[in-house]
Amino acid sequence: KQWYQRRVRGGLVLALIMLITGSINTISAKFADLQKTFGVDGCRSFDRSFDHPFFQSILMFIGEAGCLIVFHLSLALSKARGREVEEQAEFKPYIFLLPALCDLTATSMLYVGLSLTYASIAQMMRGSVIIFTGLLARVALGQRFQAHNIYGMAIIVIGLAFVGLSQVFKFPGDPDSLTATDPEARQPILGSVLILAAQLVVACQMIVEQKFISQYNVPSLQVVGWEGVWGLTASLLLNLILYFIPNLAFNIDPVIDDFMSSTVLNRTDPACNATAIKAILNHFENPIDGAYQIAHSWKLVVGSVGLILSIAVFNWSGVSVTSYLNATTRMIIDSLRTIVIWVFGLIVGWESKVAGRIGYELAGFVLLITGTFIYKEIVIAPALRRLDEWWLRRSGGGVGGEFLVDSDRLNASGIQAHRAPAQD
Q: H or E segment at 54?
């Protein structure tokens, strides 16, 4: 009994760590997006926004690659203590390259989207990964659904619609131009679309892992680490390429307008001229400017370190908590994480406080949680069980669409990655 109590207490501590670090991950990224400081142009009297989503992906993969170090340290510690260690599976590290490229694509899109919309909306939109995973699994792997899977997905779609409409409708209390006066959500509709697209890529990654990697029986933390190594390598290369591509996607005129109208600008400083500022901004991504801004702002240092450490600890605790408790607990924690991010955003002023918009978001959140719990059989009413039995008789005994949802692992973006389970 004492052993069981200690195990439960240990699981609850890990669950709390997972909840805190998972929330910190999204909060740190959004916190960095909202900071302003001078850049590599050298004009110290003009602060610019930290607008470097692709550079943030480098930080994320540093944290994920750190999981490989944690894995080997844990393995060495177990051997030193004389514990029995499971024989390591043989595999070629390059098998993680394709999933890592998917991860990089999804992470980059996610951070661009996060910089354009509210943190809570970004977190809620991540729930769409179940829809994309289920549909791709049906097409690519021939999986069949039970009735509760289909009803759960339908409810999730309705929930996503409510969350999306909260960004489209104009509510009483909104300013005349929401995006022009709200730095926390400059382009919320575009941000939401990018986050949805990122979840489609995440779903593709799950299918790839299910089809090509699950056969190797690699420990989850080791998989995360290797994907981090490949993702970091590819992210560095991507940032180098984007540096030499002109910035055609984002309008830099507002920044130049702010520069020209600044009342604190030291106009006698040779570095403070619009041409120099424009040259720095005219890169699709400028990692040099990003690193320079971080080095000269303690707030950006806090946000960046928080990003790196939170993803590493989040992955470790996520893998551990499932071994102590169960995957259902993981799903509940992920739901609580959305609430924590949302409440934190409301307290610090990162979220819209317009009553109508909050109502739509709350309705969408409740529907997303309900649909997810039904899909995962966490909440199955007797009526749904009878529907499942009828569906199985009708389809000749199909396999449920759950195969990718009870993962013990996380992806680089700090999302509960509903991937194919790897045996630890």
A: helix 53-80
Spacing of C-alpha 92 from chain mean position = 27
First-to-last CA distance in the chain? Answer: 25
DSSP structure class, residue 263: S
Q: What is the pLDDT of residue 109?
A: 93
pLDDT tens digits for 378-408? 766 655 666 666 666 666 554 444 433 333 3
Query: What SS3 class is residue 217?
Result: coil
Query: Please, which residues have CB within 8 angstroms of residue 385's CB and are 6 or more apart in sequence?
Result: 148
Looking at residue 351, the DSSP 8-state letter turns out to be: S
Instruction: State the average pLDDT for the chain.
Output: 80
Tokens of 35: 């900071």
Closest by CA to 47, choosing from 286, 255, 243, 187, is 255
Angle (CA) 304 310 315, round 5° = 140
Confidence of residue 363 (pLDDT cuts 50, 70, 90): very high
157 burial level (CB within 10 Å; 0-12, 13-18, 19+)? middle
Name the β-bridge partners of 36: 49
Which residues 6+ apart lie within 8 Å of 353 measured at CB?
A: 346
pTM as predicted: 0.81
CA 293 to chain centre: 23
Determine the distance from the C-alpha atom of residue 322 to the mean position of all C-alpha atoms in its chain, rounded to a whole number. Answer: 19
CB 315 within 8 A of CB 409: yes
Q: Does an H or E element contain 7, and which?
A: helix 2-33
The DSSP secondary structure of 137-174, one letter per residue, reads HHHHS-----HHHHHHHHHHHHHHHHHHHHHHS--TT-
Distance CA 343, CA 205 (A): 31
**Distance, CA of 76 to CA of 166 (rounded, Å):** 50
- CA 107 to mean position of chain CA atoms: 7
Least confident of 28-32, 224-228, 393-397: 393-397
